[in-house]
Structures are given as structure tokens and as C-alpha cells.
Amino acid sequence: MRHWSVSELVNSGGLPTVRDGLADDIFLVSASYEDRTLTVVQSLSNEYRASKGIVYVNQELLKDPFINKVKPHLEQLTELLALRCESVERVEGSWLDPRVQLLALRDGLVTTTDREQTQAITIDTTTFNRESLLTAIALLRNHFPSSRMRVAYTSPQKHGDWLSQGYRTVRNVMSFAGIQQSSLPTLLMVLSGFEPERTLKLIEEHEPSKVLLGIGDPPTNQQFLQRNLDEQKLILARQEVQKFSFPASDMLACRESLESFLRPYLRSHNIAVAPMSTKLSTLAVFLIAEDHPEIQITYCVPGEYNSDNYSSGSDKVFVGELPRRSMADESL
Amino acid sequence: MSHNPLSDSPTRFTNPFVVESPEKLTTAQIVDLFVTQFTDIETVKQRKHTLIWGSRGAGKSMMLRYLEPQCQSLASGGINEFFGRGNSFFAVYCPCKEGQPNKTELLLLDNYSRLIISEHMMNLAIADRLVESFQRQFPANFFRKEDCVEFVKRTLRLFDRASIASSIEKVDSAVSLDDEPFTWLQELFIAENRKVSNYLTRNALRGGGAIYEGATSGYHDFLLPLMKLTQKLPGLNSASVYVLLDDAGKFTKEQQSIVNTWIANRDQSAICLKVTALREEYKTFLTRDGGLIEKPHDYSSIDIEELYTQSKEDYAQKVKLIANKRLGLSDVPTKDIETFLPPDSTEEALLDSFKRETAGEWEQQGQPGRQRDYVTRYATARLFQHLKASRQRKSYAGFQTIVHLSSGVVRDFLEPCYLMFDEYVSEGRSPDSISLIPPAFQNEVLFRYSEEHILGKFEDIRKNLPPEKWPQVDALKTLLESLGRLFYERLHDPEAREARLFSFTIRGSVPSSTAEVLDLGVRHRYFQLRTYSTKEGGGRESWYILNRWLCPAYKLDPTGFEGRISLTAKFIQLAMEDPDKFVKLRLKQQEDSSSEKRQATLFSLEEEEAG
């Protein structure tokens, strides 16, 4: 996975299309209240072109207290993509209602696009909420199995004092229910971030016999590591919790690392994985669940987001391609 | 055939009050720790569907696990002895886990498909647990292999053969039915589970057009006949199969309606359901067809916490037996919990003197009512009043007082004791040298527990709710403050005729916003909700009893009595908004009431609010 500072990326000519000289078929981005929602689109090369630009937005963000920040971002993204895409569509999903989220993404992403002709997709994962990102990628992988799929992620320079507060419910991410055997114990793997309350809620709801608590190390930014460790102290003190480290800044290395920790439990436990760290590690969890459909991806819906001060600045832009699925895996 | 030996290593506790999830305890630990007296276990053992209500930590899961064959075998002197009895049962523990039955993808199915798929998933989960029990809960060779093979073959016939053909082929390639029949059957269930999961995923990703290719199973064509086949296994002596659905609040409402439908069939001679849940999480009593399951025709129910409400003495005995068992399994030299947690002796002496004093008063006042009631009513209140006047802090130390504080939930007794012991050891003492926890040390932990674990919980509750519900948390906090202060004033008022108030009833109906706050209080166990006959007769009022763990924080009396005040909806509303005004007005109303001016005060309150 390659990464640049934003200025390096822009100075090098910006982000090109997936295939040299050929337009992408889909460019997908999610609009949010964070300024870094614009970074990748603003860093596209002058030659970048796509057949279809899709701007996803959760409908809850089009109301108070988010709308004042989200609406301008949404308009900017639409305008910028209109310069480079034949058409631009807005897809309104929901972070509260998983049914609305899935149906919106499914209608927006797949019904009007040709399965065979879609060969190159770019996804800016930066400001998707993790649940909708996982659902979107699952839909795209399923409908366009032969397409090359490139992901981009902009890490922030700084995170706010808090990212989200409280929690509403715990549920499996749509299409990642996993396969459970009721007689097996549960293993919960949490890729922790800066939201220890949500981790505790996940532990409380799943009542796992064992918890693997992952700390992103190396992180996307060294300053994030100590905060991550400090915030997870309380959880690490619990008897059933075992700590491990994973590379939060590299999707494929992360996948390899997570898989090595999970492999001993694949037959002996029902496994639920909660990605709560970077989007790159969330993508790694996607790849693992794709390889092992028995693994469930679980998600704790937050009570509210810190829309005023979730993050600031754009630090690095990470870009990489999702490995293609083998033909045997495409039978779903 | 895999097998767990019946004899586990002996249980020893470093901290005798440690609370461990029953799922993680071994058979020997469960038998060592479970107390059969005062637990309703005999009701649960009866061949009748039972709903078991109770808070987290009340002991529901422990009770269910105690019913499993290994535990019953240890308790009965052997597996053959247990199943040889006329009224034996084969209990299969089926915990409901987050993300297993309540999959998000079910939201995408139409109602009919959702019910069909849900029931099939639930059947597969129970069947898997049943077969797991054959393998884990019985001694090796308890079942003859040919009987097991026959059981599996008959079970297969319960499915549509064509629907499971591909699963059979897959399982055959990995496991031999003749060599490992139960493992073979579990693999088949996994294969069928995989089909359900694949279908749900396909349906989510592809939308219309996804076709389910696996089997389906219902109650009459699968679950009931499966249990009848189980009964026929030699050695089980036709025992009814008790399906122990633990934490059924994790089921969706539709899945709960499926359980209700099973219950309504009343086939207890073959399958008997024991369902535990937090009362507020069991969302329906309707069956799939809209029928209502009713007590006592369809099921019996028990509420584990009611033992305390009904008989405080029995509850204290139960806690004493549990605590003594735990002390017995630890290195602590003292094996009697009352000795281990002594009360404050100075305060005990003071209380005795007030008892003597009030007994004398009873004589002087012409023996009104029973002497014991008179002494109970006034002696403790006098003690509180005396301590306040002499600026001394009330002690909540002592086994009996801590039992009262725990309000009927055993875990709420064990947890503070765990903290006390842990902190006492951390001061450099060895567990085998601790013969008691001094009252002053107990008190420190008890006050802190009351403040941090009970009053400090509001932040946790808030986190568990969406922001739009946060005003309810504030209202609940204010309501508790209002009640705490009112009850404190009454308890410390030497003129109060009924000083020991600890609960309230509500006259008339309350607006839904108020009811939601009260429900929140019940859900988080700040209140226990009971009903009470109206003074006028012919109806019942909601009766809210405060959690006694609030007593140290508000300096109230936790012992026994549940003196109550009756509040109107307007007063409750006021208590949720303004503690100062509520306390002032309620105390004034009390004064006015004694001088027959009660009605005027109510009018004045209403006028103020209207303005």
C-alpha cells in the first residue's frame, strides 16, 4: 500500500485512474462533516475521469447538528466530480437503519451499471462510517467480481478529544452475519480505536469467552498509538482480554496479521470481529470475512458523533488495490 | 465420542466473593456453589413451561446450568440414579447469544419468510446444543453406538431428504456416520446453518431472486419429534427434554413469538421450555398466530428477585448459605458470613437501647397495636435521628444490612463484598489470616459502592441511549434526588408518625413522558415495580420501591420495611424537575394533611403549575 502526504500526492500529478489512460467506471465517496472528506477528490489528477461518480451520504447528516458542515461538503464533492465524471449521483443511506443503508447502496451502486463492463472502481473510504463502507464494498465485490477495486484513505492530522459518545445498539454488519454453531464459545476480536465505551458495549453484548483486543501498531500516525493504549487500559485489565498489535496503516499486512491471530480459533469458536480502528484495517477485516464467511463482522452503533471536532487536517493519503477474489470464492 | 469427566478439579477461591459467568464455571464449581434452598429450583424442575424473570446477576443462568445432566448427576449420586427416578428430565442449556439468532439480514425478509427462517435457525441451534449435550454431559459409552446411529438416521428423516442431500454429501466426505454419529449430525447442522447464512447474505447483496436451497424445520415436524426421539434413547428413561433458553431477550420479537407458539402447544411430556429473560426485554406474549399465552394454563413464571419482597428472611438465609459455601471453598479461616461481616457494635448497642425505650413507650401509650410493630416503626428511626443530632455517620456494616442493601440480587451482595475483601488483602494481608472485615472498613466500601456503582451509573445509562433520550436520564436522576431528600427528611423528623418511607405509589395515570422515566428507573433497577391494592379497593396501583443500594448515599434505612407515600402524577412530574420545591411542598402537604388541609395544598400546587 502506498502513501503520500497530500502535497506530495498533488505535486506528483495527483491520483490517476486505476488503469493507465482508461477512465474508471465508478468513483465512490462518502460526504461527511470532516474536512478530509474532500481531500482525495481534490487530489485527483487533472486527467482523472470516471463514468459514474457516486456521493454517498447518511440521511441523518442532512439534519442538525451536521447539516451546516455536510451540505457544503456534499455540494463541493458533487461539483468537483461533475468535472471528471459523465454523471454524478447522490445516494442517501442511513447510519441508524441498516435496512435503509443497504437498500440505498444497492440501488445506487449496482442496478444501473453493467456487471461485465465495470472493470475499475475507485473508493475513497475516508469518511464512510465503517458499517456502510463494509456493505458498499461487499455489494461492489459481489456485483462486479472481475473489476479492479482501488481504495484510498486520508488519515487526519489530529483527532478530537472524543469521536463518538454512547451507543444505540449492537448488530452484525449487513451481509456479514457469519455462521455460528451454538455449541461453540464466542471469540470477539476488537480492532480498537479511540472509543473504549463502544468496545465495552460489544463485550457486554456478545459475552465472549475470549477477547482479542488489537492495538494499531504501527498506527497511521505515531501520536495515535499512546492515546489508543491509554484509552484501552480499562478493557485490557479484564481477565478474558488478550492484547495484540496489528499494522493499522497497511491493509494487506493487517489482513495477514489478523488472520494469524484468528486462525487457531476458526474451528473452535464462533468468531465476531469489530473493526473500530482505521478504514485500512476495516478493509483488512472485510478481506478476512470474505475468505472466511463463518466470521461475523459486528458493529456498535454510536449514540452521537463529535461533529464539531471529530478530526482536523489531512495527514497522509493511502492508496492500494483490493486483491482480487479467486474464482472459487465468487460462487456466492 | 468426546467426553468430559464428571469429576472436575475442586473449587478454591482466593477471593470468596468472586463473581464468574456461569457459562465459564465447571460442573463441580456449579454444584459446589449452587444453593438449592430458597431458589424456586423445585418449581423450575416441574414438567411445566416456565418463564424465569430476573436482573442480570440474580442467578438465572446458574439455576439453568444446575439443571444440566452432569450437575444433576453429581447432586443425585450418579447419572443412572438421576435418570432412574420417575420425574427425571434431560436439560439442554441453550444460551441466546448476540448476533446469532437476531441477524440483521432478517430485516430484509418479508414477515412470513422471516418467521420460517428464524424458526429453522432456532431449531438448528437447539438441536446442535442437544447433540453437544449427548457428547459432553454424559459419561463415555452411556449411549450405545448403534442407538446413536439409529437416532441420527431417524433425525435425518425429519428433514426433507432432497433439501439436505447436498449437506449429507458434504458431511459424508468428512466424517463417518457409523463411527462418529453425533459429530456427523452436528456437521450436518453446520452445513444447514451455512445454507441459511448464505441465503441471507445473497438476499442482502442481490435482492430479489435469491432462492433458499436448504431445509426448513418447524415445531411439529422437527423440534417435537426430535425430542420424542431423544426420549427413546436407552438410558434416558423417557425423560422429558427441558430446553433451557437463557437470555431470550436476545431474540427478536418475532422469535419470541415463535417461543410462545411452542409454549402454547403444551407438549411438556416431551419438550418443556424454561425461558429466562429480563422482564422488560421479553417483548411479547403473543404466538405467531396472535394468540396469547397465559398463566397458569400455558406456563408458570417465577421472578427471582421476588423472594426478597415476599420473605426477606428467606432471602437472607439464601445469601447466607451462598456466602458460607464460598467461605468454605476459600482459605479464609472464618466460615460463617455473619461472623465475617460483623455490624458496628456501638450502633448495635444504641439500637438495642432505642428498642427498649420504644417498648416502654408502647406500654405507656396504652399498648397501641402490636409491640413488635411499634418498636420496628420507631426504634430504627430514633437511631437515625440520634446519629444526626450527634453528627455521627450511620454505619451500614454487617451481613444483615448488606443483604438488605442487595435488594434481592445476589450479585449485588457479592460484588461489594468482593471489593471489600480485595482491598483488605491489597493492604498486605494474607487471605488465610483474615477472620473478619472490620465494620469501619466495610463502611468505606459500602458508601463508595452506593455512590459510584449506583448513583455514578447515570453516565453509563446515558451512553446506552440515543441523545434524544438523555433528558429522561436527567429526569430520573432528579426524581431520585427528590425522593432521597424527602425520605431523609421524614426519617430524621422526630415528629414523623411514619418515618421509614422507602417507596411510592402513583394515583391515577401518568403522561407517557413520565412513564418512560419511571420505566427507565425500573429497567436500571433504581426501582422495583410491584402493584398494590388501592385503598378504595377494586384496583391496583403501581408501587415503586427504591433500590436499597441508594440508602448509604441518601442516609436512609435499608432494613425491611417499605413504607410508602402516594403521589399524584403532578407531584411525580415536579419531583423530576425540582427537588427543593417537591420536598418543600410534599412535607407541607403532610403537615396540612394532619390538620385536614390537604386538599387546599393540592389546589395550590395545581394552580402554580398551571401558571
Layout: helices, strands, pairs:
The complex is a heterodimer of chains A (332) and B (611).
Chain A: E1 2-5, H1 6-11, E2 24-30, H2 39-42, E3 50-58, H3 67-82, E4 85-93, H4 98-110, E5 120-124, H5 130-143, E6 148-154, E7 158-159, E8 164-172, E9 186-191, H6 196-206, E10 210-216, H7 222-231, H8 233-236, E11 241-246, H9 251-262, E12 270-275, H10 279-291, E13 296-305, E14 311-312, E15 316-321
Parallel strand pairs in A: 2-3, 2-5, 3-4, 5-6, 9-10, 9-12, 10-11, 12-13
Antiparallel strand pairs in A: 1-15, 6-15, 7-14, 8-13
Chain B: H1 27-33, H2 41-45, E1 50-53, H3 60-66, H4 69-76, H5 79-84, E2 89-95, H6 111-136, H7 145-156, H8 161-172, H9 181-206, H10 219-231, E3 240-246, H11 253-264, E4 271-277, E5 300-303, H12 306-310, H13 312-328, H14 337-340, H15 345-364, H16 371-389, H17 399-405, H18 410-426, H19 439-454, H20 458-463, H21 470-491, E6 501-507, H22 512-523, E7 527-533, E8 540-546, H23 551-554, E9 563-568, H24 569-575, H25 579-594, H26 598-610
Parallel strand pairs in B: 1-4, 1-5, 2-3, 3-4, 6-9
Antiparallel strand pairs in B: 6-8, 7-8
Helix pairs in contact in B: 1-4, 6-9, 7-9, 8-9, 13-17, 15-16, 18-19, 21-22, 21-24, 21-25, 25-26
